[in-house]
Design a protein that fits this description.
Layout lengths: L1 E2 L8 H8 L3 E5 L16 E12 L5 E3 L4 E2 L8 E5 L5 E6 L7 E3 L9 E2 L1 E4 L8 E6 L2 E6 L8 E4 L1
Antiparallel strand pairs: 1-7, 2-3, 2-6, 3-4, 5-9, 6-7, 8-10, 11-12, 12-13
Length: 154
């Protein structure tokens, strides 16, 4: 999870409260280096509206509709969460393995349902630092997972 700067010092309870009545938009590729960066390389696969409150007592996400109908074909790779007023709260990894959001399918097909099975909010959030090198932009994350430690963009 990468928090937007406005939520960098938020507690889990504050993040959950911010998501009440907000949206969760799922994308396949092109995850920006931080939640404060504009989405430029991806279109939305599916969109969920959080209920109010957004999480039940067991910390399970609650949506107005779940599953939702998929808009575009793709493999869910990440999602951006917004508050009810449209402010970005966080970006989450999505899909199989160690992802923070799990779905009932590993792929999304237009016109078919896609259900969120779980959404994990954990702190401390992932951090990202940026460097410009002779090879392009280098983003280093605060994760221990070596496969997600580095991203290079020319």
């Amino acid at each position: 999870m990468r928090l937007a700067e406005a939520y960098a010092s938020a507690t889990i309870e504050q993040i959950e409260a911010a998501l009440s009545g907000g949206k969760l938009v799922v994308f396949s590729v092109g995850r920006p280096p931080s939640a404060d960066h504009k989405i430029t390389r991806s279109a939305a696969l599916a969109e969920y509206v959080f209920a109010s409150p957004a999480f039940d007592d067991a910390k399970t996400p609650v949506f107005a509709e779940n599953p939702v109908t998929v808009a575009l074909v793709g493999t869910p790779g990440w999602a951006r969460a917004f508050s009810a007023d449209g402010a970005v709260v966080a970006d989450f990894s999505a899909g199989a393995g160690l992802a923070e959001i799990k779905f009932d399918s590993i792929s999304a097909t237009p016109g078919f349902p896609l259900k969120v099975l779980s959404l994990k909010i954990s702190l401390p959030a992932e951090t990202v630092t940026y460097e410009k090198t002779e090879y392009g932009h280098v983003y280093l994350t605060g994760l221990e997972n070596a496969h997600r430690k580095l991203s290079v963009r020319g």
